[in-house]
Amino acid sequence: MLALDWWNGNRSVLVDADLTGVLIGCTLTTKPEEIYRALIEATAFGTNMIIETFESNGVPIKELYACGGIAEKDEFMMQVYADVTNREIRISASPQTVALGSAMFGAVAAGKEKGGYDSIFEAAKYMAKIKEEYYKPIPENVEVYKKLYDEYKLLHDYFGRGTNNVMKRLKDIKKAKTEA
Q: Considering the entire predicted model, what is its pTM?
């Protein structure tokens, strides 16, 4: 089963708010947990598309870090991301990473003379921490996800790059019906 998780459009890579979600491969015996897994995998595949787009445009992605509730609480999802991206994923040691980042920039704004730091890199060196445990790709999962990702890219391009504009036509039909 595969999904395109474009419930609110595709904001990265395609930059098209009119795209909608797709779920393919369902049968009468499909279970809710299989749909849930396909949706998680879709977000991981989308992340991998972003990584590939950066790299194909000369921006190397050397490391992946995750923070927040999902990174802290959902080991399954983080393992899927590691397997799909075929990269280790490190986790922030702070459960409040966004607040910590703000504090780090505050410390830089204060400057060394007032107890802060001269650069964000210096602040990060002393204030930011990474957990010792991390998510490492599982080779046999990586191989399966490579095949699924190839299929995902075909769907992504077919529905997202103008080959089949059914999503937009459906929105037009709905809009016309609503206006009538």
A: 0.88
Give the integer Cα–Cα distance in Å for 105 and 116.
9
Could you report the per-residue pLDDT of 114-139, keeping only the tens digit for each? 999 999 999 999 999 999 999 999 99
Give the end-to-end CA distance of the chain in Å, rounded to a whole number.
37
**Domain residue spans in the chain?**
2-93+129-179
The amino acid sitting at 83 is D
Helices 32-56, 75-85: inter-axial angle, 10-degree rounding: 40
Q: Note the CATH number of domain 2-93+129-179.
A: 3.30.420.40
Burial class (CB in 10 A: 0-12, 13-18, 19+), 135: buried
Interior CA angle at 75 toward 73 and 42, to 5°? Answer: 105
